[in-house]
Write a structure and sequence with these properties.
The protein is α/β, with parallel strands linked by helices. It has a single domain, classed as 2-Layer Sandwich (Nucleotidyltransferase, domain 5), CATH 3.30.420. The protein has 7 helices and 5 strands; from the N terminus they run αββαβααββααα. Strands 3-2-1-4-5 form a 5-stranded mixed β-sheet. β1 and β2 form a beta hairpin. α2 crosses α5 and α3 crosses α4. It is globular. The termini are far apart.
Amino acid sequence: MLYFEKSARNKGFSFIVGVDEAGRGPLAGPVVAAAVKLKKTKFNNYIDDSKKLNPLERESAFIEIFQNAEVGIGIMNEAVIDAVNILNATKLAMERAVANLFYLSKKKINKNKIIVLLDGRLSLNLPFKIKNIIRGDSKSLSIASASIVAKVTRDRIMFIYDKIYPKYYFGDHKGYGTKVHFKAIKKYGSCSIHRMSFSPLKQS
């Protein structure tokens, strides 16, 4: 899980950032991205692709990541997703996460020393070196950490929405297109956090 971090450091990069997102596929709620710069590489918790961890493992890892890394988070809500499409909203969330990471770190760093390890094939508008890694959340500790932060952050948002819109059971399915969710949409229609540009909502 450290091959890409070590390779980047061997090439002279001293500020290595992992970036990933959560929530591209759901019918409701935001897309959330996280940018993580690790301060240590040994964790007590299991760090891997967030989809490989259960909720309790993710929550525990989330806390330790914040204790041992610099973190930036970017969130684009359903209005942005509907306005610019999910792909562009995901890019914006990732760019915001990186920007927030540097804002919070308050460090002046030569941009030539910065590299972003990015899960997947997306291209971002950033003034740094970007290394795209397919399935990076299972290959890079930095990206895996970002995937956990993004997933837990989004899940917590959806738990809040579950309290506001209890009829949709957002706390259970997190906005994904489950049978329960489709049944609620059919019965009650859409609510304010649904992505109206997504099928089948755009037909309703």
